[in-house]
Design a protein that fits this description.
single chain, about 750 residues, alpha+beta, Immunoglobulin-like, 3 domains, 8-stranded antiparallel β-sheet, 6-stranded mixed β-sheet, 15 helices, 43 strands, about 20% helix, globular
């Protein structure tokens, strides 16, 4: 295969910055900091120095050696998508001696049970599932969760896998009963048969790679027309399926005391509220026969699903909390009373039981909470506070409150702000955090406080800094605001549970900034730009394209029953440090010694690299996550290597075709995950490459076809031709042509 590549320089690196707002998952509103002024006004009121506008690095790098055009023959290529955890790296390597292109992933470990569960889950949830398994402190518990996925029958596999991927490992390994994952999914489908306004739609089955489920509703739009709408799958999984509503523990609860208990004493809200009724109260599942509409936007009443939920709550609940303030829907129902907090929790449960996408909305500092439901005909969350529906300015215009911050809960413990929906006067706070050397401080928990409705100061919202050390908040006007930051580099202010004031009587349409530099330093990247080679070779070209599609931010805002509910939130773009180095400098990098490289770039979101190897040694392109403290970028890398058509391996020049058949030793050897086997074809013949165990039994066939003269490679991933995993041990890789039989030994280690 011949590919012509025009080279403007021996090394050309173009690094792009990502701009524009991004929502990696529904409802997670992030503001593009370059657009804040145009959104909220032009007056920046700085409370901690000048506004910091750090951006992903934009670089156009050309090596000093070579300015020419040439033709290149393709040798090999590979593509990988991998998450680089804090302190690790992803590396693309090419060895001219063997002409082997290899990719080294960051280390991660899954058991056979976990790997099988990941493979059975739909493709779109596998990365999140693998990430969650990695965060379990006890692998055995992760295996129990994985077994739930393996044991789940159709059509529940996707729902079980989603819950396993998006519940905090601390909760799954704590007081939560793991069998609840399947039980919750079974209850969802069981309720579907008794509802006439909604249907669960399954696209495919567990044998399909990308199968998924969602819900389809009858609703009435703004024009009074009955329409059928189908919600996005992420709305269904997060806000119908997810068993955690807000700050409660998702588990079986004893109605008599609100404590966790094994069945049959303990019950789950999705079953208990639907199928059981205390004496004198209406049974929830008997109210739905005549309900055919999700929501009548023009004239909502008890004949639609939203009105039916309100009617049931009005029957089973009495306003006014007693001495006990439960957060478990089961216990709330048993007491049949409460204030806004209890009403929020039982309304969220009742909504999700009826397959209505429902979330919990909170305004802590002004002491009120409510709900929202998803209206897919208008693609928006709708304010829902009992009979007050779609009236978000009720609290400001009707109750006379100025709301400091409003946020929505996600089931894994993440929250996203929605203050702009409930306040007519909005200001913006940008927080910029750096270490003692001025590098961005990522993964820092940011606590924002405000003047409390009843006096004093109290929590109002939370956030976490991204890889640029930034976090942005939309806040209400006419408030004083305070802040506290906590992270791997330290806390400020120093005393526990302390805070410092940053805004005095916030003004609408004003953007505030607060910058803080920690006294400690994050780990140093430790690679500097090398001097160019004076007499470089011109034999091999390495081309790479990469894109940090997002980063995962890990943090815990809340503790549930003493367990930190750590979430994993995706934000775009992800950022990585990049450099090109030979083996000696790469070793220096690994050992934290001074290292040199080419194209050394901090905080790159994406890029293209064209690199002519200047020497005959192995060269590495390294994507490093050493400098970040918490956040982890996910990088997609495509690599290809080419040989100069004017040069050949055998004689250093002349003909491009190999002079003989050859089979190179597998690399790496021994191997654990995958071995690459390079081979050459000298004529137009059928080539069979197989793997055999030491007794001579065939284990796998890697290729069997006709090859034109050239250079090729195949991979063995340690699997047998029957689809199972080969046992650890010695194997022989054989290459058979019409005239030759070649063999190499390889060792597989599990």
């Amino acid at each position: 295969m011949l590919r012509k590549v025009k080279i403007l320089a021996a090394v050309i690196i173009v690094l792009f910055s990502a701009s524009g707002a991004y929502s990696a998952e529904y409802g997670a509103t992030e503001i593009d900091i370059t657009q804040i002024s145009s959104m909220v006004g032009t007056d920046w009121a700085s409370t901690g120095g000048p506004v910091v506008r750090m951006q992903p690095e934009i670089v156009d790098y050309s090596s000093p050696w070579g300015q020419f055009t040439d033709d290149w023959n393709f040798i090999a290529n590979d593509t990988i998508t991998s998450t680089i955890m804090t302190g690790f790296h992803l590396m693309v390597s090419f060895d001219p001696a063997t002409e082997v292109l290899s990719i080294t992933e960051p280390p991660f470990s899954t058991t056979a049970t976990q790997a099988a569960a990941i493979q059975r889950a739909p493709r779109w949830v596998r990365a999140d599932l693998c990430d969650n398994f990695q965060r379990f402190t006890v692998p055995t518990i992760a295996d129990w969760v994985a077994q739930e996925i393996l044991d789940a029958p159709d059509p529940y596999v996707d729902e079980v896998a989603f819950q396993a991927a998006h519940l905090s490992p601390g909760l799954l390994g704590g007081a939560m009963y793991i069998d609840l994952l399947l039980y919750n999914a079974e209850l969802i489908y069981g309720v579907d048969d008794g509802l006439n306004f909604v249907d669960i739609i399954d696209y495919g089955a567990s044998s399909d790679d990308d199968y998924y489920s969602t819900t389809r509703y009858n609703t009435i739009d703004e024009n009074g027309d009955t329409v059928i709408v189908e919600i996005e799958p992420e709305i269904y999984y997060w806000n119908v399926v997810h068993p955690k509503l807000s700050d409660e523990l998702p588990t079986y609860i004893d109605p008599a005391n609100g404590q966790s208990a094994a069945p049959p004493v303990g019950v789950f809200w999705r079953d208990y509220l639907w199928n059981l009724a205390d004496s004198g109260y209406v049974l929830y599942n008997t109210m739905w026969d005549s309900v055919t509409i999700l929501w009548d936007r023009g004239s909502p009443d008890i004949t639609d699903a939203i009105g039916t939920v309100n009617s049931w709550i009005g029957n089973v609940m009495n306003w006014g909390a007693g001495a006990e303030r439960p957060i478990q829907p089961v216990r709330i129902y048993a007491l049949h009373c409460g204030n806004c907090g209890e009403y929020q929790d039982i309304r969220a449960a009742a909504g999700r039981i009826a397959l209505i996408p429902t979330i919990c909305t909170s305004n802590i500092c002004e002491d009120h909470v409510w709900n929202e439901f998803w209206a897919d005909d208008s693609q928006e969350w709708i304010h829902w506070d009992g009979g007050d529906i779609n009236n978000p300015l009720l609290y400001e215009n009707g109750w006379g409150k100025r709301l400091s911050a409003v946020f929505n809960y996600r089931g894994d413990g993440y929250i996203w702000g929605c203050t702009e929906m409930y306040s007519s006067g909005i200001c913006t706070l940008q927080v910029a955090l750096t270490d003692s050397t001025g590098k961005p401080a990522d993964g820092v928990k940011i606590k924002v406080f405000a003047d409390f409705y009843y006096g004093g100061v109290y929590y109002t919202t939370w956030g976490v800094s991204n890889s640029l050390g930034l976090a942005t908040f939309l806040l209400g006007d006419e408030h004083d605001y305070y802040i506290r930051v906590e992270g791997a580099l330290g806390s400020y202010p120093a005393g526990s549970n302390t805070y410092t004031q940053i805004i005095d009587n916030s003004l609408p349409n004003t953007a505030y900034s607060w910058n803080y530099e920690f006294a400690n330093a994050s780990p140093n990247f430790g690679v500097t730009e090398a001097e160019p080679y004076q007499n470089p070779l011109n034999n091999y070209l390495l081309e790479i394209e990469y894109d940090c599609t997002f980063e995962t931010m890990y943090q815990a805002y809340f503790s549930i029953s003493g367990i930190a509910a750590q979430f994993a939130y995706k934000s775009s773009p992800g950022l990585t440090d990049v450099f090109i180095a030979n083996q000696a400098n790469f070793f220096n990098y690994l050992t934290m010694s001074p290292a040199e490289g080419f194209g050394v770039t901090d905080n790159s979101a994406s890029g293209q690299i064209s690199y002519i190897l200047p020497t005959a040694e192995t060269w590495n392109v390294v994507f490093s996550n050493r400098e970040l403290s918490v956040n982890s970028p996910t990088v997609q890398v495509t690599a290809a290597v080419y040989r100069n058509s004017a040069w050949s391996v055998e004689n250093g020049g002349g003909s491009d075709a190999p002079a003989k058949y050859s089979l190179s030793a597998p690399y790496p050897n021994p191997f654990n995950a995958e071995a690459l086997i390079a081979f050459t074809a000298a004529g137009n013949e059928r080539i069979t490459i197989g793997v055999y165990d030491i007794s001579g039994r065939r284990t796998a066939v890697l290729t069997n076809g006709f090859y034109a003269p050239g250079y090729y490679n195949v991979k063995w991933n340690g699997m047998t031709e029957q689809g199972g995993k080969a046992a650890s041990g010695i194997y022989f890789v054989t290459m058979t042509t019409g005239s030759q039989h070649l063999s190499q030994k390889v060792c597989l280690i599990k």
